[in-house]
Design brief:
This protein is an alpha+beta fold. 45% of the residues lie in helices and 15% in strands. Helix 1 packs across helix 2 and helix 1 crosses helix 3. The longest helix is centred in the last third of the chain and has 13 residues. 17% of the residues are buried.
Length: 66
């Protein structure tokens, strides 16, 4: 797997903010590695996954967990 996308690149591809990418990463929803300098590098091509996650979270906004 190629890990080449930075947080900002993935945010642009997924049409969300960099903060959203960091939240999704912290929740374990995205595949990434942390470089020795602390920068996250994401697996290439996850933009569509980000869009799916965002759409699902928006659709479920306001719903109570059962």
């Amino acid at each position: 797997m190629d890990y080449t996308d930075t947080t900002s690149q993935l945010a642009r591809e997924g049409e969300v903010t960099e903060r959203t990418i960091r939240v999704y990463a912290d929740l374990g929803l995205l595949d990434f590695k942390v470089m020795s300098n602390g920068i996250r590098i994401f697996r290439k091509g996850q933009g569509s996954r980000v869009k799916e996650i965002y759409a699902e979270r928006i659709a479920n906004r306001g719903r109570r967990a059962s």
